[in-house]
Amino acid sequence: MDIEITSPANITLDVIEIDEHVPSLKFNVMIKINKFNFSVDACSHAWIECQHIDEFIENMRNSELALLKDMNGCFELLLNPSLGWLEWSCAKEDLDGYITLCKGREKLTEEAKSAIYTAFINYPKWW
């Protein structure tokens, strides 16, 4: 796994393709939630520009609102340190325009925020 978040939600981002023309990474995004007799398993692909990853890391470093969003707006990861929330969403539109969406909000502790920051900062940058 390239980037793995285990708390407060299980989210993994595995790189499956690289575009050097528009510096970006294509991730296989996996979200697994199990709680309160409820579970969600979502898997999708997301192209994320490298500059957005850098901005996300910088905003986390400065304890600011940090948003990681794919090029199509179908995947979002939002860390809101002032409210103590981690929010995520994953959507997929079919050929007829119908959309399936799952999203969630979890409590973001200082430990979880630090672990998420570490997971992203440890990813080897090529750009």
Report on this model:
This protein has 127 residues and is α+β, with helices and mostly antiparallel strands. The protein has one domain (3-121): Transcriptional Co-activator pc4, Chain A. The protein has two helices and eight strands; from the N terminus they run ββββαββββα. The chain has helices spanning 50-61, 110-121; strands at 3-5, 10-19, 24-35, 38-49, 66-69, 75-80, 85-93, 99-107. A four-stranded antiparallel sheet has the order 1-2-3-4. The chain has a four-stranded antiparallel sheet with strand order 5-6-7-8. β2 and β3 (24-35) form a beta hairpin. The mean pLDDT is 95.
Question: What's the SSE blueprint?
Answer:
Layout: E1 3-5, E2 10-19, E3 24-35, E4 38-49, H1 50-61, E5 66-69, E6 75-80, E7 85-93, E8 99-107, H2 110-121
Antiparallel strand pairs: 1-2, 2-3, 3-4, 5-6, 6-7, 7-8
